[in-house]
Amino acid sequence: MPTETFEFQVEARQLLRLMIHSVYSNKDVFLRELVSNASDALDKLRLAALRDDSLDADVSDLHIELEIDSDARTLTVRDNGIGMSYDEVGQLIGTIANSGTAEFLKELRESKDAAGEEGLIGQFGVGFYSGFMVADEVTLLTRRAGEEKGTRWTSRGEGTYTLEEAADAPQGTSVVLHLKPADPDNQLHDYTSVWKIKEIVKRYSDFITWPVKLVGAPAAEGAGEGTAEGEGDGPAEPETLNSMKALWARSRDEVSEDEYHELYKHISHDWREPLETIQMQAEGTFEYQALLFVPSHAPQDLFTQNYKRGVQLYVKRVFIMDDCEELLPPYLRFVKGVVDAADLSLNVSREILQQDRHIRMMQRRLTKKVLSSVKTMMTKDAERYATFWREFGPVVKEGLVTDSDNRDAVLAVSSFASTHGEEETVTLRQYVDRMAEGQESIYFLTGESRQSIDNSPHMEAFRERGIEVLLLTDPVDEVWVDAVGEFDGKRLQSIAKGEIDLGVQGDEKPAEEREKEAEEYAGLLEWMRERLDEDVKEVRLSSRLTVSPACVVADSQDLTPALENMYRAMGQEVPRTKRILELNPGHQLVKSLNQAHRADKDAAGLADTAELLYSLAVLAEGGRPADPARFVKVVADRLERTL
Ligand SMILES: Nc1ncnc2c1ncn2[C@@H]1O[C@H](COP(=O)(O)OP(=O)(O)OP(=O)(O)O)[C@@H](O)[C@H]1O
Q1: Which of 306, 340, 550, 600 has a C-alpha 20 to 30 A away from that of 87?
Q2: Are residues 262 and 375 in the same domain?
């Protein structure tokens, strides 16, 4: 097969350009990326060999080699792992599939200024292409385990690459970097220097569970470090540069935060530091160790079907799978990390995991551990908790609906925006603790945004009386409030549902006055109900309005408009729910309407006013009138008459 030349996919070209021209200072990370890829390839091969006896692959001495050739000015990163087929090289190396990378490029495009660009690249796991930060040509020679022929890929990072068959390739992958001249002023170090390579491996890749060996280093330089064996000019014995200690198996005081963070970046493909590191060792009949991380940012695809959830599963230090979903519930799907179980079979499959009793036990304990860590964060570090809740609150709240066993624990780490303050969120505990004497319910209002809730007419009486209301703006809020129902004996009550009796606050109207009002308005209310029959099932006087003329509310059992929309969006048929229209008898518009109706219920314009009043109430809660064009026309006519 002849050598073929291909063009990089557009995103890949863009990333390459960045790598080559970036002013970004920390070029050392290229080695972390290549070692990380090599380590993944070894994991994959070991697993493939375990699963498939007939795989013709050598797994006797899996390792990573770094080879320096000072004369040729090359650095080679070699592994004897799974390798890639000819087609795979084209697919994997010529394109960008990693969603993290795509997201990164998008952010980069959006951050127009160079400083933002540098900051972003600085924290990003840049993958294979990062080799082009230090090399002006990269050659990759690879052979997939079990296949006969290898593939050679070469590129100068300038828009094209070549592919050719290579008959002589050993199993695995070697990446040869033809190094650019060292330029210490621009942080481009001499990567043929043994001590530099050692330093980088120690810093970024110490935890890699495969040996990272330095081969072909001149003995003199290695001996100068006091670690390499042998003397004279001949090549030294390969030296293993990393400790290979699985971080999850070490006690917390032996491991630095930086080391944990490097592991997090290795397994999550995130380029930022995690928010929280959680370690757990379970001993007894079923032993396992877990090292879990809460990221500092919610990924954009967290709410999509494609989101890959789950942690890495190891069995006795052997990597078994990525994205093991069975170890944490869906509402903790943002948690990343490693779980290493001592007593599972190396051949364990997803099907087995789904039914395994031990796995279920582990899930229960890991869930509790994550929730208790968040609880600690909440009490000890309010700011970090605030970040956590902002990023992951909408997901965690799903647990209030789906995990009845842990509902109390989830509720204890949940907090909500409230009328009590602009910035901080409150827990139900805090809400209940400061409830006024006689208040029986925990009041809340759901809606699209804080602003629309704040301005909603339902809020008026509560604001006037200084009663705190929780402001719930996530879609899941519509659901969990029903699932939870009450807290500490206090019912969760939507202020847009049912009759609201704020009499407890001591300033209610006397009963006679209410009765008199009811009598005066009875005719209007009945007439309006008939006029608005299509949309409204009841028209009544309100005790929740002080400023607005009208508002719409639902019966306590009714679906809210937001829930109705949610079900429709999911393709479910839901009958249209008629609402209840409440009128404010203290408002001049309502008073005048009543007088006009009493004088002559057929008076011109009366019906339009009734309709307007209803549309205004719908608008005020963030909805839209059923017939906007007609609404506009009626309003315009009215305005015209006032001029
Ligand atoms: N040494 C290797 N052996 C086998 N396959 C490899 C090797 N290096 C890279 N690959 C394949 O190429 C793909 C792309 O690698 P690349 O480093 O660009 O991205 P990544 O590792 O998926 O993600 P990240 O951007 O976080 O590094 C890998 O997912 C892997 O399938």
Answers
A1: 306
A2: yes
Q: Per the structure block, which two tokens stand in for 61? A: 């001495």
Q: Is the CB of 131 under 6 A from ligand 1?
A: no
Whether 81 lines ligand 1, by a CB cut-off of 6 Å, is yes
33: Cβ below 6 Å to ligand 1?
A: yes
101 CA: nearest ligand 1 atom: 25
Query: Which residue type does 172 have?
Result: G
| DSSP reduced 3-state for 324 | strand
Ligand 1: centre distance to CA 129 (Å): 10
Instruction: State the closest ligand 1 atom to the C-alpha of 126, by its place in the atom list counted from 1.
Output: 25
Compute the radius of gyration of the chain from its Cα atoms.
33
Residue with CA closest to ligand 1 atom 19: 127
Total domains, the chain:
4
Is the pTM here over 0.80, yes or no?
A: no
Contacts of 627 (CB under 8 A, 6+ apart): none
pLDDT single digits (tens) 450-501: 888 888 888 988 988 899 999 999 989 989 999 999 999 999 999 988 877 7
The Å distance, Cα 87 to ligand 1 centre, comes to 14
Structural domain range at position 636: 510-642
Give how far Cα 496 sits from Cα of 34, 145, 446, 556, Å.
Answer: 57, 64, 8, 9
The model's pLDDT over 217-242, given as tens digits with 9 standing for 90+, comes to 665 454 444 444 444 455 567 899 99
Count of other CB atoms within 10 angstroms of residue 160: 14
User: What does 584-625 look like in DSSP terms, one character per residue?
Assistant: -TTSHHHHHHHHHHHH-TT-TTHHHHHHHHHHHHHHHTT---
Same domain, 209 and 70: yes
For residue 449, give the 3-state DSSP assignment.
coil
Does residue 306 sit in helix, strand or coil? Answer: coil
Count of CB atoms situated within 10 Å of the CB of 103: 16
- Which domain-ending residue is among 457, 476, 503? 503
From first CA to last CA, the distance across the chain in angstroms is 85
Please give the number of the atom of ligand 1 that sits closest to the Cα of 125: 26
Residue nearest to atom 29 of ligand 1 (CA): 92
The ipTM of this complex is: 0.97
Please check whether residue 615 is in contact with residue 551, taking contact to mean a CB–CB distance below 8 angstroms. no
